[in-house]
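thread: overnight batch results

M.L. [08:02]
morning all. the overnight job finished for the chain we discussed friday. pasting input first so we're all looking at the same thing
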Amino acid sequence: MSKQQTFSTIISANPYRNDFCIGTLNSISNIASPSFSKEQYAISFLNTKGFISALIGISKNIPEDDVYDALENKAYEELALDMAIEYQFQYIEAINNSTESERFYHIFIVDPLTLEQEFLPTVQAIKYIDQIVPVPLLLKSLYVKEILESSGVHSFIYFQENDAFLTIYRDGEFVYTKSLKYSLKQMHERFCEILGEIIDLESFENILSTQGLNPSNPEYQKAFFKLYGEVFLHINDIVTYAKRAFEIKQFDTIYLGTAVGVISGLDEYAQTYLGLKAQSFDFDYGFKTSSTSVDQIHQLMHLYARLESEERYECNFTIFHRPPPFAKRDSGKLILVVAGALAAALLYPGTYWGLSYVEEFHYALMNQEYQKVHIEKITREQTINLKMANKNAAQALLDAQKTAYKQKQDTLIQVHDKKVNYPMKAKIAADFTRSFNQYRVKLQSVGYAEDSNTSVKAFSFMLTATSTQDITALLKHLTETKRDKYDFGLELISYNETEKSYLSELKAVLK
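M.L. [08:03]
and the structure it wrote out:
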């Protein structure tokens, strides 16, 4: 049964502009303030930026019931989707692409967060959406209603404020779609860049809808031709790719349209630039419209909603379902049960007593179950507390062992330092004395000092000699032979007149 037969009205919603159109029988009109109604069928669409599409093949041996899972798994793998996101998947079979071993499907993938964010204002206004369709699939209705012939290859290009798309159909079946990088807003921004001045979006759209590509202002005209040169260079790249990827020899017709209406000169420009037969995306859907122009996408949604289920692509992304009938709601079931119970209680007191007994019996069973669970809970808590106590005791023992280990380690380090680094003063003094005797220098006294802060260890030797040359020769000898162990310093040499000798202090700092 068609939606036209089931519902009295159809309401279409554009979530990206937050505008609505309502249709009754064969008429459509814009509506500023939509409202909730159980008697209306609500339909909306996803623009091409809102979903991912791909052509995926799977084995023909996969049972029909497993097709969805197989496509989902392959999509995550081939498209490198984020495994942390539970995407929504819908698919339609690509009949013309099947081979002997594989079946191919056009798969459409949507992030649920996109649906929640972009359709929230729409749902707040009309409460539910029966159907959300990817925008390129709406074009299927043109072939079902025989507005276009099903034979041949057709391309559709449509520019909206926030999106633009190119879609290809072959023999009345969907083949490919691609989001274009030039929406009306993006074209407006690029136009202002080329022009070198800012005009508002509304003025830009008004120029397009009323004057087309040949505005009266020559500067605007130059800017438009440069802008559309860039736009159709981008489109030509996509057309070239599609021909190669889907083995398309030639496009029969390319249809171009915009959300602001027909742009004068756009189809001629496209035909010249692309070398393809071009026409306006402006079809006669058979609807009576109000004086205000109704967007082509709205008319396509109304046409699509009127199709029988077997005539259209079953690809519905809605998560905003209408409430079920009263008897199927949980609240409705509860009310009906309570009403029935009350009626039975009033008519048959025995029934009420029986229900009360059943509840008491149910309570007794649940109480027994609770006692068992409660005992098990207490037992597990005790076990946990015991293990925690054991853990704390073990941790305390471990901490004590670590402290003892650290103390022993510090003691051993100190002993090692003393053994390895502590200077043997007697041995050192004897060693130096041999050098003093060799150079006829006498040792009057020897001293040793150690700085605890800097760990500097130093010997000081008070020396006497009959000649200063003996002291300097000694210093030269010590510096050459012991420089790897000591840093030497010699204080000023003084002369003792009484003893007729020279006196000086030699310092040797251990390295």
